[in-house]
Amino acid sequence: MRETVDRNAVIGRVHALFSGRGLTLSSAESCTGGLVSHYLTLLPGASVYFRGGLVTYSNNAKIRLLGISPSLIESHGAVSEEAARAMAEEARRLLQTDYAVATTGNLGPGTLEGKERGLVYCAVSGREAVSSKRMVLTGNREENREEAALLALLLLLDTAESG
Amino acid sequence: MRETVDRNAVIGRVHALFSGRGLTLSSAESCTGGLVSHYLTLLPGASVYFRGGLVTYSNNAKIRLLGISPSLIESHGAVSEEAARAMAEEARRLLQTDYAVATTGNLGPGTLEGKERGLVYCAVSGREAVSSKRMVLTGNREENREEAALLALLLLLDTAESG
After folding, report:
1. pLDDT-based confidence at residue A162 (cuts at 50, 70, 90)
2. Is B104 strand, coil or helix?
3. A66 CA to chain B: closest CA distance, Å?
4. Across the interface, do B57 and A34 touch by the CB < 8 Å criterion?
5. In whole angstroms, what is the distance from residue B156 CA to residue B126 CA?
6. CB-based contact (8 Å) between B69 and chain A?
């Protein structure tokens, strides 16, 4: 993946799509820790479509800031497809945007909640539906974070371009 | 600055200080767009002290998510020392942490709210007081963002180490 996905090309595609169509965007991040919103705001003019993001690194922040239900986290874990989807939906609701992108995962080292290292879920909430994706990344922590952020943006592009 | 401040050294110092002293931390970012929280969560174990962050890129997000008063933005602008200090105080309150770090500025290109390109304010809210700093950066947009994020972390270190 790292050899074939060019960061600047992905960021440029998001920028063209959202500014061109007058769509708005927000984010909710756990494992990527702010890197998705950093990427989304790299280009000047991003303020036209990017409203804001939440870095809900702790479960407490997921519950307090985003309004994720504690029972969802208890049942499925914070590293789960259900959590990623709920994070995207709540960010979209809170920031009143057309789309929201979310990430949660275990970038390593070691296991987390019994979830394997490199396991990442990303989700995109749009006006019509929520899409999500599961992946297992094999790099080191920083490589995994960059890859997870870019894969989340690719899911956003797939969803918004077909929406 | 870029030649003398080592990113990993700054991140390592924050990690040692906050994990060593059992302190908690949150962030509120405008111009750095998530890069501060990305830096704060690069090292494994950051979840022990970093609770979460808000990327309030739009004025609407500053008002809706952080609870910044619209009249503060109207009087001083979102790129102001007053806004930076209010962002740090509100993040600390919302996430119930010992410290919070905030950034707001105009990274360029062009002017913003009539504020010069490269003008950045960062602020740190701690248990005792709020400290803030004004700077004018001279790099390109991406260089300015990295420099602003690191200077915010240096202000955090100065404040927390003496606190």
Report:
1. confident
2. strand
3. 10
4. no
5. 9
6. no
A48: closest chain B residue by CA: B58
Write down the pTM of the prediction: 0.95
Contact present, A62 and A73 (Cβ < 8 Å):
yes
pLDDT digits (tens, 9 = 90+) for B74-96: 999 999 999 999 999 999 999 99
For B142, the enclosing helix (H) or strand (E) is: helix B141-161
- For residue B115, the chain A residues in CB contact (below 8 A) are none
Q: Quote the distance between the C-alpha of residue B141 and its chain's center.
A: 17
ipTM of the complex: 0.94
Q: Convert B134-161 to b/e letters by CB count within 10 Å (16 or more is b).
A: ebebebebeebbbbbbbbbbbbbbebbe
Residue in chain A lying closest to B45 (CA): A109
**A104: which strand partners?**
A121
Domains present along chain A, CATH in parentheses: 7-161 (3.90.950.20)
Chain center to CA of A7: 15
